[in-house]
């Protein structure tokens, strides 16, 4: 039973934090829509570019609107040379989410415009809003791929304008033209992770945005929040956990032990879903597609993951705990040649579309977030200087 006292709800469970028209989820039936469009259709038929446009602008784009947006994203893929210099000073064994947050935060210094957040004294200049949305979204994939090369001591791979967002990201990461099936799978992954109502990182973006901070800092704030293992950071832990289990035969005992120790199973459970996360189902379908494409060759960890899901059906499903989006995504990314600590940054690339859509919605009808607290500390008491203590 959740503790509710004096109106305080721990974790703000079930407490509406805003009104929004961007996405909707029904956790009882496993439905997720972006601007009313079911995620299952978007993952199958749309692209990350179009999905970002839908989230940010509210409906389906006309052909020329999408072409313009796509062209702007392509034209803005390069980041200033100085960002590369910043990366060169970061410790190579630091987590990529920290490198990403640092570099995204710095973007505003290269494209200043803080004063345009209050152009007429109150509202943001809409041209600045649109420009920054494109600039940040286009830069995200470049920053993630750049760090991969810089931390290895290599020169980063320059972005290309003749590739889609997903193709270009895989090209910059792996330094080779992506296989079309793999690029389409990456595109679907970006669509699936782009938005998810008011989760922790989006809430963080809203709070930061409500102070009229510039959008690069709004996204940096959300990146920090996404990094934690209870949120986006779980995808990396899932693979380490599957390694630790080691084989299909060991799954049952491992799970019993894990639950007896009151430890969470990474990639399982969700505040909102009481059925299997629809994105986990779609990601598993993409894994099957990749397996077929590779004539049955895919990670042995996939077998362990499926055995864990079957085992958890008896132990966790009765409590409404099922695989979430992070359970199968890492298996796909690893199969696409991406290092484990880059899984959460990929999540961040995609979720930037949702964060910026929420930022735009927030500042169009802004009120600063300033909740209150239930004070549990001392009554006022007298301070004793050190000399008389
Ligand atoms: N494994 C085992 N038990 C779990 C799990 C899990 N993954 N998730 C929840 N539970 C149990 C809790 O221990 C608790 O049990 P209790 O009632 O006996 O104390 C009960 O289910 C309710 O859990 P809460 O922690 O109250 O759920 P909450 O909504 O606060 O947390 C969260 C949700 C953080 C996602 C949680 O399920 C979790 O820690 N999962 C593992 C981490 C993870 O995969 N995070 C990614 C989520 S998706 C995303 O953010 C992109």
Automatic annotation (TrEMBL):
Keywords: Acyltransferase, Transferase. One of its GO terms (biological process) is tricarboxylic acid cycle. Pathway: Carbohydrate metabolism; tricarboxylic acid cycle; isocitrate from oxaloacetate: step 1/2. It comes from the Bacteria. It catalyses: oxaloacetate + acetyl-CoA + H2O = citrate + CoA + H(+). GO terms for cellular component: cytosol. The active site is at 270, 326. One of its GO terms (molecular function) is citrate synthase activity. Pfam families: Citrate_synt. Belongs to the citrate synthase family. This is Citrate synthase. It comes from Halothiobacillus neapolitanus (strain ATCC 23641 / DSM 15147 / CIP 104769 / NCIMB 8539 / c2).
């Amino acid at each position: 039973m959740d503790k509710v006292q004096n109106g305080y709800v721990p974790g703000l469970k079930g407490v509406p934090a805003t009104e929004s028209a961007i996405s909707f989820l029904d956790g009882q039936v496993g439905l997720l829509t972006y601007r009313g469009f079911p995620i299952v259709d978007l993952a199958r038929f749309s692209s990350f570019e179009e999905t970002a446009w839908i989230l940010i602008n509210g409906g389906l784009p006309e052909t020329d609107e999408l072409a313009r947006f796509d062209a702007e994203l392509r034209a803005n893929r390069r980041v200033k040379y100085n960002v590369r210099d910043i990366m060169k000073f970061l410790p190579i064994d630091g987590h990529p989410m920290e490198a990403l947050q640092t570099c995204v935060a710095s973007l505003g210094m290269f494209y200043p415009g803080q004063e345009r957040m209050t152009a007429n004294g109150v509202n943001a200049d809409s041209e600045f809003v649109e420009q920054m949305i494109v600039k940040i979204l286009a830069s995200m994939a470049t920053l993630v791929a750049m760090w991969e090369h810089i931390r290895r001591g290599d020169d980063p791979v320059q972005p290309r304008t003749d590739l889609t967002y997903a193709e270009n990201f895989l090209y910059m990461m792996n330094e080779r033209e992506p296989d079309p099936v793999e690029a389409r799978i990456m595109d679907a992954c970006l669509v699936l992770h782009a938005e998810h109502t008011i989760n922790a990182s989006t809430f963080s973006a809203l709070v930061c945005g409500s102070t009229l901070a510039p959008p690069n800092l709004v996204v940096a704030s959300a990146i920090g929040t996404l990094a934690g293992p209870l949120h986006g950071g779980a995808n990396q832990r899932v693979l380490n956990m599957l390694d630790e289990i080691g084989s299909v035969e060991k799954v049952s005992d491992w799970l019993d032990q894990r639950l007896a120790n009151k430890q969470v199973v990474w990639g399982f459970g969700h505040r909102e879903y009481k059925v299997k996360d629809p994105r986990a189902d779609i990601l598993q379908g993409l894994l099957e597609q990749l397996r077929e494409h590779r004539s049955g060759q895919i990670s042995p960890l996939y077998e362990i993951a499926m055995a864990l899901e079957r085992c958890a059906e008896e132990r966790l499903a009765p409590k409404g705990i099922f695989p979430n989006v992070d359970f199968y995504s890492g298996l796909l990314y690893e199969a696409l040649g991406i290092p484990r600590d880059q899984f959460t940054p990929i999540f961040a690339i995609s979720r930037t579309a949702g964060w910026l859509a929420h930022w735009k919605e927030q500042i169009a009808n802004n009120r600063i977030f300033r909740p209150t607290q239930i004070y549990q500390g001392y009554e006022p008491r007298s301070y004793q200087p050190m000399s008389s203590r």
